[in-house]
Amino acid sequence: MGNIGGVQREHTNSEGFAKKVGLFEAKVLTINPSIEEYKELLGIELKEDSKSAEYLGTSTDGNTFLKIDVCLQAVKSDDRFRVTFFLEDKERENKDSIKKQYINEV
């Protein structure tokens, strides 16, 4: 795999954790972790009523949505991250309601 260049930046916000910006090589630890995996892999203690481990639901518009949490570990360090994607089952149109966006195998 080739090297990706760039300036590495790190910013500490008022909450005390470092915000890292840029590209990095990572390995996937798990996708949609359970409450036990949150604690084991990320060191995050979830409350019993936490909705972090609920991945399927209904949006405020009544559409079904799927949340995908991907837990990553940087290859060059032991830093662990969680990246979240939201997929919602609804039609997407431009502001004139003339064109629709479709996602298919093409």
Going by helix content, strand content and strand pairing, the class is: mainly beta
Q: How do the SSEs run, as a string of H and E?
A: EEEHEEEEE
Q: What Rg, in angstroms, do the CA atoms define?
A: 18 Å
- What is the residue-averaged pLDDT? 81
Determine the N-to-C terminus distance: 27 Å
DSSP strand tally: 8
Low-confidence stretches are none
Helix count from the secondary structure assignment:
1
Anisotropy-based shape: extended
What percentage of the residues does DSSP assign to strands (E)? 35-45%
Helix content: under 10%
For the biggest sheet, the summary is: 4 strands, antiparallel
Question: What this model shows, in words?
Answer:
This protein has 106 residues and is mainly β. It has one helix and eight strands, in the order βββαβββββ. The chain has one helix spanning 35-42, and strands at residues 9-12, 18-21, 26-31, 56-58, 64-74, 80-88, 92-93, 100-101. Strands 3, 4, 5 and 6 form a four-stranded antiparallel β-sheet that branches. The chain has a two-stranded antiparallel sheet with strand order 1-2. The model has no long low-confidence stretch (mean pLDDT 81).
